[in-house]
Amino acid sequence: MRATLVALFLVLRCVSPTSAWAVYCGNRLVSLVSGRETQTSVWYKCGEPDTTSRYVHYRAVQETDAFGGTHITGYVPVVTEVWVYNFGPRRFMEEFSFENGRLSAIAPLGYGY
Question: How far apart are CA 101 and CA 31, in angstroms?
């Protein structure tokens, strides 16, 4: 019984969402886990993206008062740049999002062409 639970835990650990937060570009791994991926490192590993877009959105800044309540004190601009890579018809296209130059998200987009 104990061995079965350990095996089940290991299987669930291997398919956890954190293991899907990486993409291979050739034989180089681009990963969100390290938190150190920059636009330059992704460019080096994957080459030039097929499409790029850039936009600015505003994120609320919250403060906690002395009584534990939170309130919004202002907004800060966050520059987001989105790169899309098309790896061909046998692989998913991947969307890399960067906030202020650092990799913040990886999303599969479906099969490429």
Answer: 15
* Burial group, residue 99, by CB count within 10 angstroms (0-12, 13-18, 19+): middle
Task: Supply the pTM of this predicted model.
Answer: 0.70
Tokens encoding 21:
């937060």
- Domain range list for the chain: 34-113
Cα 26 from Cα 78, distance rounded (Å): 31
Stretch 44-52: mean pLDDT? 96
Rounding to the nearest 10 degrees, give the CA dihedral for residues 20, 23, 28, 31: -60
Q: What is the pLDDT of residue 1?
A: 55
Q: How far is the C-alpha of 101 from the C-alpha of 37, rounded, in Å?
A: 9
C-alpha gyration radius of the chain: 19
